[in-house]
Design goal:
Oligomer: homotrimer
CATH class of the largest domain in chain A: Alpha Beta
Radius of gyration of chain A: 22 Å
Largest interface: A-B, 25 and 22 residues
Number of strands of chain A: 18
Shape of chain A: globular
Largest sheet of chain A: 7 strands, antiparallel
Number of domains of chain A: 2
Strand order of the largest sheet of chain A: 12-18-17-16-15-14-13
Strand content of chain A: 25-35%
Helix content of chain A: 10-25%
CATH superfamily of the largest domain in chain A: Naphthalene 1,2-dioxygenase Alpha Subunit, Chain A, domain 1
Chain lengths: 342, 342, 342
Amino acid sequence: MFLREHWYVAALASELESRPLSRQILGEHVAIYRTTGGEIVALADSCPHRGYPLSLGTVVGEQLVCGYHGFTFDCLGKCVSVPGQDRVPSRADVRRFPVVQQGPWVWIWMGRGEADPTALPVTPWLVDTEGWSSVAGVAKIDAPFHFLVDNLLDLSHETYLHNGSIGTPEVATTPIEVEVDDASNVVRVYRHMKSVDCPPFYSRTTGLVGKIDRWQDVEYFAPGFYLLNARIAPIGEPPLEDGSDDHAFHMKILYGLTPSTDDKVYDFWALARDFCVGDSEVDVFLEQMQTAVVQEDVDALNILQTRAEAVLEVSEVSIKIDRGGLAARRVLAAMADSLTPA
Amino acid sequence: MFLREHWYVAALASELESRPLSRQILGEHVAIYRTTGGEIVALADSCPHRGYPLSLGTVVGEQLVCGYHGFTFDCLGKCVSVPGQDRVPSRADVRRFPVVQQGPWVWIWMGRGEADPTALPVTPWLVDTEGWSSVAGVAKIDAPFHFLVDNLLDLSHETYLHNGSIGTPEVATTPIEVEVDDASNVVRVYRHMKSVDCPPFYSRTTGLVGKIDRWQDVEYFAPGFYLLNARIAPIGEPPLEDGSDDHAFHMKILYGLTPSTDDKVYDFWALARDFCVGDSEVDVFLEQMQTAVVQEDVDALNILQTRAEAVLEVSEVSIKIDRGGLAARRVLAAMADSLTPA
Amino acid sequence: MFLREHWYVAALASELESRPLSRQILGEHVAIYRTTGGEIVALADSCPHRGYPLSLGTVVGEQLVCGYHGFTFDCLGKCVSVPGQDRVPSRADVRRFPVVQQGPWVWIWMGRGEADPTALPVTPWLVDTEGWSSVAGVAKIDAPFHFLVDNLLDLSHETYLHNGSIGTPEVATTPIEVEVDDASNVVRVYRHMKSVDCPPFYSRTTGLVGKIDRWQDVEYFAPGFYLLNARIAPIGEPPLEDGSDDHAFHMKILYGLTPSTDDKVYDFWALARDFCVGDSEVDVFLEQMQTAVVQEDVDALNILQTRAEAVLEVSEVSIKIDRGGLAARRVLAAMADSLTPA
């Protein structure tokens, strides 16, 4: 039921300190940790002996030692020692999952086959910090993955759910354009607002006052990566014909949508900006602001799920603002169908 | 499974301030709120767009605006605007439930047909305050509706469960009389205690000391309204032949029994008295005392439900004190049977 | 599914003060209390009237009075009075369970037949305090009974889970000997460690420093009683040929394993020692130390159960250290099989 042959964000690099991290991804428990040498490792989080979580164990050098009876594993998941005897049973190895760090995010490959490095989403603004600053975080939502897809593909909710930070009336009233690239499983939603108020999220950081032009260009790379290209500029000053756009402020708002179980999803986020670069006060402001915005989404989706659990079927009345979300559903359904043997 | 074609108490008037109230009644989520103009409105608490609770929205004048994407509804549940387009889909209306305020209580009609105003319980002591003072409250019980019916129909439990406030030994030992009016679905239970101790609940407010005559005349109007006519008087001084009873103290103890779900029930209560009228200290004393008494019932019924959930069948041994409760069960079962097509 | 015809520890004597204790044992709710005269009584914890827990009632002399409507029971479970009438229904009695106090532990017989006094485990170190001091406690584990059996039969986990108190590397590395007495349903596991470090648990109380000989001789009397005979002695000084062993320190570590429900178990424990007898500071130290050790087991087993609930089947890789636990499983399975009609 999960789309496994894809990269998903599994952790923030900052979460991987001395103790292993336990995370349930696509239904599987994974222990993620950094070895003494600095390598990031992800192993199935269940000791083959009696099922105790390996994430409760201890990292010793390049090895992970189970906290119950001491079964010990190397970075490839191979069991290298057990208590009370010299011979190590061959069945005692655990599965290792490929991981790749890109800036603040650690990506994981949960697929059955080999990891496909060319399928890894490209996030240069997080990795090559020349000209960009970024902050990142994560929240867990007690609602299904597709609730979060719906939420992010229809930003008109900013006006109501996030009206103190990023929402202004024009987000809800401005019509959208939707493009679907079925071959690449990408949904794009464009909303270009002209001569609108600058919301607190941007006025505080850009210094712009009064009316602005505000673009929200969404790219959803199904299933697990979402990129909102935000452009804030003085009125009537579009990018130049050569593509340069130095008079505007740009923010890349990235989301990693990672299903945990059927009814829970991790909401990883990162904000990269090409202004106030290196300004740690702006870092703090944006991190606090975005954490609050994400929590508003978490609260709303948790409530939706609580309600959905109580009824057999939730009927929906969709309107034009929903075209992006409905397109994403179709793309995801097609991807799932393609997994089914004919 | 619910008896829908009846009035139930849905809220205290005091609960309806600036923010909408969410309440689950007979299994349905209802958003109850007061408009800027003062009208009380009850709508189905689920936005037709994506199911977000309307109770989390904002009252703007006479309209309710959904807090997720801004679908907007008038007092009749008609959707009057949606974001991003001018045309409002015809399927976007929500159900409105008739409500009537009577003093501190707001009644609701959850039935499929038209509301029947003549079926509304009569509670003059709460509405016409001439000669009466009242206090009111509500508790939610994590146990089925019928547990609360059992509890209220057999007041012998006062002696044990409420022995610090309204219970004295004679409540349990004094035999009861039971009358059933099958045509009107009313069960009456009479307990007339002669020359008994005055419990703290009444001695503090009436000033009576030593022995009293104490009557408990219960009227249960199935399914949702219960009235305990309490009479406290000096020994051997019954009402006069002309019905006047000025030498006695009277209290009307009203309960609104409102099923929330199959296994939860709201326990609305109100106390009206014809003594110490207008004395706010007595108001405070009685409100605190009754809140504590109700909480004792809540705790007991919650525990009973926890136990009942763990067993397939709870066997019972009924005795004479249970005749009121058993009569109420028969009346309710007959009402339910009458709903079933022959 | 439970092995009923056995004695289980039901309570600590110290838990039976003025108020009845509610405990679920082998799936059944039991009210355990001490009468005014000092007798310990265990009755089915459900009033026959409406199922209210009798453990919420009041002990009045030798009787227990239900806290809801006052049904009253004697020490044999016979209902001796009900409210509102003189005649007591014959069906109103409740089941009484035989109990026996032995020192700090109260044993119960949940079997359908007569209690078998000869089957009661012998714990002289707790009862006859000549030459012995003891402390006792109890914890509840949200995991099945057999998880606790596994835990106690394989002490190699001390090295990892209890490494700050009773675990040293040699517990895990020292091979074990296992004996099974199928006729008596007893599993014995011997681990004799020579010239090893003395863990904090013993060094603090015995005063031994440096290397010691340390024996762990386990006797598991299936299903409900476990005895760890611990022997701490200077290096190379085994017991004398006549069996005397005065130069060693002995501790009896007793566990009462009492299934509560299918997936919960009570973990009663007692520590008896033949050194520092009567020293209350050592009592306090050992009680705190053992409480912490037991909590480490509780945490680990709760986590295992949380994981086990999420999967259909937990696969296991067993090694030599597991021979005691596997033997215990076989003995318990044989006992369960013997209950099944051929």
